[in-house]
Amino acid sequence: MLEAIQIPHQFKPEIIIGIDPDVDESGVGVVYRTSRSVTPMKFSFPNLIDYLTMTRDMNPGKVLVVLEGGWLVRSNWHLGGGYMTMQKAAELGRRTGMNHQTGILIEEMCSHLDIPCTVAKPMRKVWKGKDGKITQAELQKSVGVTNRLPRMNQDQRDACLLAWVYAGLPVKV
User: Fold this and answer.
1) Residue 93 gets which letter from DSSP?
2) Tens digit of each residue's pLDDT (9 = 90 or more) over 120-138
3) pLDDT per residue as tens digits for the range 28-86
4) Residue 139: burial class (beta carbons within 10 Å; 0-12, 13-18, 19+)
5) pLDDT score, position 55
């Protein structure tokens, strides 16, 4: 079950931008509270900052950025099961650290650009997809959006779900 989320801001933003940070292209999900519509996107770091700035400028006082903060979760990587070599573990750790740093930099840029931003721990994986992640069909059904969602990658689906939950809209699990 998904936990209730408390929005840490005094205002009720109209546009909630969920971001699943990635060093190559971050998954982005934009939720428009009133119309209950979702728009998935993906951006490189510089293009994401341009998009956030443009959205803030076009919608003053109506935007909240919610970052999935994987770096908030303490975890240990173990060599085990026979499939994880030290080289694979090192590469996994390197890529994970790069993604975490991208998220930290997005948060820093939001602060610098005066864009309201909050960092959220990754949501529990309670879905039917690989490793408990949400599938395309589950996202469409669970949020009951008014628009048909295009095909998206896992980062985009996670970002859309994060934005939807932070918008305070109902999720059917």
Assistant:
1) H
2) 988 777 677 777 787 888 8
3) 999 999 888 899 999 999 999 999 999 999 999 999 999 998 888 876 565 666 677 88
4) buried
5) 97
Sheet holding 117-120, edge to edge: 37-43, 26-32, 15-20, 63-68, 117-120
Strand partners, 65: 17, 117
Tell me the one-letter amino acid at 158. D
What the block records as the tokens of 170 is 């109902």
- Unique residue bearing structure tokens 């864009």: 115
CA–CA separation, 23 and 102 (whole Å): 6
How far CA 14 is from CA of 70, 75, 140, 163, in Å, comes to: 25, 34, 21, 11
pLDDT value at residue 64: 96
50: Cα separation from own chain's centroid: 17
Please tell me what DSSP assigns to residue 151: P
Q: What are phi and psi of 36, to 5 degrees?
A: 55, 40
